[in-house]
């Protein structure tokens, strides 16, 4: 029987700027790399529930080959955290909000933090073997555990580096949207780059 997909939850504040873009780009890239292996959703800690993504967010997503057509903001819930295998936040305060809902410390990171650690992790034979045997969810859970071990060993389990955050462009000018994109895209590329390597065996 096929595994359930590996579930990624992306979290920001209003769920109309950063997390919709990150979620859409991850969703589409991962679906192309490994169809059916991933499920990506996003939410906000103080979501503008029911609102569409900001026009600038839709433009950024479009420029990256994704769409936010039909998107509506959702409030972060305990249930969302509970079903996620990996929670990626855009700032450390979002991580704190996630942890208030559920003790998901070992699977919750800012997206830039996760990518920074992941980029330095060598390929793992266990993960490659699991993917080859049709167990991508188990492979990625193993990988998330390795990322956590690096973070915990580095002593950064509770105190975050501001460089691991993505700027909030809500109601700000084009230069801040450009900064958001510049901070976010390389992190996403690390994640789906690893997915591509694993999928190719």
Automatic annotation (TrEMBL):
Domain of life assignment: Bacteria
Domain Phosphotyrosine protein phosphatase I positions: 6-194
Record carries keyword Hydrolase: yes
UniProt entry keywords in alphabetical sequence: Hydrolase, Protein phosphatase
Record's keyword annotation contains Hydrolase: yes
SUPFAM superfamilies: Phosphotyrosine protein phosphatases I
Family in the record: Belongs to the low molecular weight phosphotyrosine protein phosphatase family.
Protein name per Swiss-Prot or TrEMBL: Low molecular weight phosphatase family protein
Species per Swiss-Prot/TrEMBL record: Sinomonas cellulolyticus
């Amino acid at each position: 029987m096929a595994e359930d997909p590996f579930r990624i939850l992306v979290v920001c504040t209003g769920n109309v700027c950063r997390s919709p873009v990150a979620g859409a780009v991850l969703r589409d890239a991962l679906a192309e790399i490994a169809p059916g292996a991933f499920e990506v959703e996003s939410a906000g800690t103080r979501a503008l529930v029911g609102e569409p993504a900001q026009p600038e967010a839709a433009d950024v997503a479009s420029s990256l080959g994704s769409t936010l057509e039909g998107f509506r903001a959702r409030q972060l819930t305990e249930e969302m955290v509970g079903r996620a295998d990996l929670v990626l936040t855009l700032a450390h305060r979002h991580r704190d909000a996630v942890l208030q809902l559920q003790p998901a410390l070992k699977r919750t990171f800012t997206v830039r933090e996760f990518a920074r650690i992941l980029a330095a992790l060598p390929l793992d034979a266990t993960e490659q073997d699991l993917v080859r045997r049709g167990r991508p969810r188990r492979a990625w859970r193993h990988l998330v555990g390795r990322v956590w071990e690096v973070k915990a060993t580095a002593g950064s389990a509770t105190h975050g580096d501001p460089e691991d955050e993505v700027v909030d462009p809500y109601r700000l000018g084009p230069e801040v949207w450009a900064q958001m994109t510049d901070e976010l895209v390389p992190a996403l590329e690390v994640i789906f780059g690893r997915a591509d390597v694993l999928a190719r065996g």
